[in-house]
Amino acid sequence: MTDGIILSMDDLRVVTAFAAESAWDVLEIFETSHSPDSRPRNAIDAAWTFARGGKRGKALRDAAWAALRAAQECDDAAASQAARAAMCASSAPYLHPLASSTQVRHILGAAAHAAHAIELAAEGAADIATDHLRHAARRADPKVVEVLFRYPLAPAGGGRVGELLRILDRTLRAMRQTDLATDS
Asked: Which residue of 19, 61, 159, 175 could cross-link 110, Cys pair, CB 3.0 to 4.6 Å?
C-alpha cells in the first residue's frame, strides 16, 4: 500500500544525488584514517551511478551493506559516521512510498550522518554541524524538498544523528514555506 505517496524514478534519482553529495562531503574523514578500505567510496559511487541513470539493484544494496560494515568495524567515531553517510547514500534509492516518518531517513540520513561526522572530527563543536546542515539545505534541489513534503516530519529518537536529521527536516520545510509565501 502506498498511502497515496507517488514516487517516480526521477524523484528517487534526485534524492539519491543529494544523499551522494552529502556523503561525498565527508568521505575524506573516513579515508584519512582508513585509506585502504574502499567500501564507503564504492557506496557513494554506486549512489552516483544510480542518480545518473543506473539501475536500482543488487549491486547498490551490496554497496550499502558493505559501507555499513565499514562503519561498524571502524574504531574512529567520525570516520564511522562518514561511512554511515555513504551507506545512506546508496540506500536512498530505496525510499519507499509509505507515509511513514522513518522514510525521511532515506532522504536526509546521509546529510545528518555527514554533519555528525564533521562535528565529531571537530571534537564536538555543535555549531559546525548546524553550519553544515544549513549548507546542505541551501544546496538541496527544490525537487528534494518537494519529495520531503510528501512525508511526515522526521521521527523522534535516533540520538545526535536523529537530532540533526530533525534540524535539517525543519530547515528544509521552513525554507519551502517561505518560498511559497513569497510566491503568493
From this structure: 19
Q: Is residue 138 part of a domain?
A: yes
Classify residue 96: in a domain, yes or no. yes
Q: DSSP assignment of 10-62, as one string?
A: HHHHHHHHHHHHHHHHHHHHHHHH-TT--HHHHHHHHHHHHHTT---SHHHHH
Q: pLDDT (tens digit, 0 to 9) for every residue of the chain, 184 residues total?
A: 445 799 999 999 999 999 999 999 999 999 998 989 999 999 999 999 999 999 999 999 999 999 999 999 999 999 999 999 999 999 999 999 999 999 999 999 999 999 999 999 998 777 999 999 999 999 999 999 999 999 999 999 999 999 999 999 999 999 866 655 555 5
- Residue carrying C-alpha cell 532515506: 106
Residue 1 resides in a domain: no
Q: How many domains does the chain have?
A: 1
> Torsion angle, CA of 143/148/150/153, rounded to 10 degrees?
-160
* Domain coverage including residue 136: 9-183
Q: Are 89 and 43 in contact (CB under 8 A)?
A: yes
8 Å CB contact between 49 and 69: no
